[in-house]
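Appendix B. Raw example, untouched.
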Amino acid sequence: MENIFKKLLNQPAPSLNTLPHLLRQCVRIFNIHKKSGEIWLVTNANSHSDPPETALEIISQTTGMAEHPIKFRIISADMDYWPSQTINQQTYYGNDFLYENLARLSWGSFVKLRDNYQTYNYLDVMLDCIAPTVTSVEIAADPAGGLSYSRFQLNRGRVNFPITLPYYEIGLFDGAQPFNVNFFGLLNGDLFAENAAIARQPDDPGWEILCTYWYDRYVQNLLAEPQSFETIDYIEKVSVDERLLTPYSGFIIPGAGGMMAFSRLTEQTQTAVQPPEEDTELPQNFELTAYPNPFNSSTTVLLPPGMADATEINIAIFNCLGQIIRDETVSLNQAFDSFKYRWDGLDNNHLSAATGVYIICIRIGEITQNIKVTLLR
């Protein structure tokens, strides 16, 4: 596929826009040979949908003239947002109206590269458009190396499912490997089945995180079921073994500031915090405000005026899993009336934090206050 696209890029661009003529000729060739097939269109043309009657005429001269089933798989490389038009309260740019209807009427596929420049690799998007598609896909976990408890329909009601689109679903596993997964479904009307062995890669740092996410989802599914004594007892066991917080489990961690109560338990978790060595006059209570919230690049946390003397302020930022992604201590040399802390959205490694909800925890001595902020990238 990559070689095909490279050859297309090396071809000289035609001096005259011949898109309607080329489409009619393609259909004519299929009619002459009395065969069905696919037409792959990679183009940056943008002047055949304004007015819409132009697009409808091209459609009638292509799909309407085809004597045998023809699928259109269209890759639009038009990166502009003009010309634009609104049809049935839907905004279309360039030739989008033409391409969308050609693909829809022929049960084909259509992708716009302009909509994927931030999230996908262009080659992956193009492959998803022209690669074979499956009408249904199911995945069942083999009990070898784990416990199977469910089956998933991956296409979720779509007409077809691109086989190159990345997707992951893993059954409940207990750490043993390899873990076998069976794929089966329909591909172009034919049944297929495949067995894949999933094994942990050497020094894979994400394995523990993967386990945590899976067990969290698994427990959430159990909580949605009718709660019998056996179910509750099992949820308690899984949550304690995997260190998850549920309505049936909790962790109390003593400490001067109580900050450890926000952390997900690990083997290295400290269970006590040393009290301050010197007694200082500390605020008895305070409230936090943050602006802007939600924020995109940075937010500022403000302590109200009227604070008492303090020597330092401890700041910790937690993600939704209770992990500390940023912590620092600010020393104060003199009394202050107010305090501002600006978070630039970076973690301790100076990497951008992902979109999500975070807890900013500020501690002065034994007094701790938190504020929830939302980061939107």
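End of appendix B.
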